[in-house]
Amino acid sequence: MERFNLNNRLLMFAVCTSIEYDLRNFISNNKPVIGLPNDFVEKARTRNSDSTSSSKGTSDEYEILIELDLGDLVSFIIGNHSSFRVNLEEKSKMKKIFDKIIPIRNRVMHSRPLEFADRSTLEEALNIIDKELPKINWKQVKETRKLILENPQQLLMEVKPTVKDDTTKIYHNLPLPEFDDTGFVGRKKEISDLKGLILNKKSQIITIIGNGGIGKTAIAIKCLYDIVDDPEHQDRFDAIVWVSLKTKSLTKGEFINIKGAIHSVEGMYKSLQKSTVEDSDSPVDDILSFMQNFNTLLVIDNLETVTAGEILNFLKSIPDNSKVLITSRSGVGELETRFRLSEMSLKDSEQYFRLLCQYYGLELYKRDKDSLRQLLTEDLYSSPLSIKWFVTSIYFKTDEASLLAHKDNLIHFSMSNIIDKLNSSQKEILHLFLLEGKPLVFGVIDFYMDESTYELAEDINVLQSTSMLDSKSNTYQINSMAKDYLSLYNKPSNDFIKKVSKKRSELSRILQNIQLEKEASPFFAKTIFGNLETDNKKISSFYLKQALQYSADKRWKEAEESVERAREVAPDYFEVYKIKAYINAENMNLYEAIESYRTAVENANEGYEKATVLYLFSIFYRNKMDDYESAYQEILEAEKKLSRFKRDIT
């Protein structure tokens, strides 16, 4: 049969209720001698005393059966299989089928997040259940199966689900999951890590940070429903209160404004007050009072749509017994524990893409491996929203090539709220990445930017917290979607381009001079070695050359500042300490010079580099301190290092 489409959950609801209907009839029609157990009767009474007339002294078994769920019905039949004339083979088949179906039924009926395989598992059961278990009359199941095949629209009109959540002690107003089309796909480690943060007693303010459409809301809902349904964590929270500040949604491949969306902090407080207790004219006081009296997890979704600074005082006032979980494209500062959500892995992206295509009856996933990787990782940024935007747009008859050539709306939706809140220095850092077109180390960024090292570190921290920059192995790289957004909506100015070009030329000239000096005078005190090994050392050597120029003019303070900047860029670079020693010696700071030479020796590589530093250390003892004995010892050590180096290379 063709795959489910339209509204997945409603169709799955119809299948589950059909199976339950036929099982109730099977139990009722066969009327086993033993009757229903007392615990089933009590469960039925508890769930709905009005509909179980047995609570009034009568014993209508079918009314009790109506209040029992699929797990109850199956366990009753299996537990009394001989009374129902179900043999051991049929009992085994029944258990095997319903062990898979019952968890799915519970997720469907209680509005829990669906798993990615739920639809296909239930669809398979719908196809085989009457053949595998022919003793049961599957009349309603067959009718539902026929309607799904021939007229699913009618079935959707007839299904009127009633959701009852009697599975948890935790009060909550969590929204229905928005990933019913595929179920929740992948991110197993992220789910485990995030649940750990939510459940611990340490992290009071947690912010899930990531690009728009990366799946922050989805993973939050998935984790929270897992917690709500886990018996081990029923006592962790008394309440989970959700408020969404989302203002736009993806519908039929287009981004549209949400009617009635909350656009202000005041609106957020009023919405939260309605979900807690309205005791006063002050929403904030009522919310905090509720959180004081009940262990509460307050969830604020899409915080970036308002100014985060407006709620800082509120967050600082959260009672110690309660917590706050935030989803946002940018953080709220020092208060939070940040949980950064990155792009989906290639494996998860491929699985999500395939399931989504199958849901819409498309075969877009049937392409060669390289083409699929290019589409998902480069064109669609491994982002769930981007992938869904692409598939739904194709479904609604948009040409694929045209779609990928015009991603403006997608990129703007995903990035605009972040870029707009950055200051000019932070935007210039991103512009630098656009111009350089490659990952950059901190030293390179520091070289081109006109701000202190401390300010630069703060700006980079902000860019990382908003997922604009990714860091790996001491390098930074601009997020691919951020790069595309800036190229479209916020390009570098001509003045900035010229400034970067001028500094790049200046750096190139200095490095060439350093190389010439090294070849001409390798043992000269001002000669700099190893400067081309890494980008950080290149930048550090630039500042060291600057420091030497200042020291020649006896501008000792400026020289010291340049050396310090070189150290910040490359703290393990031995030349930093060698040049620092030389400048201190020239300024007759003898103790500082000795300490710096010793540090240079420790950091220099064995052989030629270490021998050079020891030689200069010897010159220092002789010329600046008249300490010939120490000078002799250092030159002997230098000779040993150099001799060993020569033996090693031959």
UniProtKB/TrEMBL annotation:
InterPro entries: NB-ARC, P-loop_NTPase, TPR-like_helical_dom_sf
Pfam families the UniProt entry points to: NB-ARC
Keyword terms of this UniProt record: Coiled coil
Any one GO MF annotation of this record: ADP binding
Record keyword Coiled coil present: yes
Ranges for domain NB-ARC: 189-332
Domain of life: Bacteria
Coiled coil location: 621-648
Entry protein name: NB-ARC domain-containing protein
Species this protein is from: Streptococcus mitis 18/56
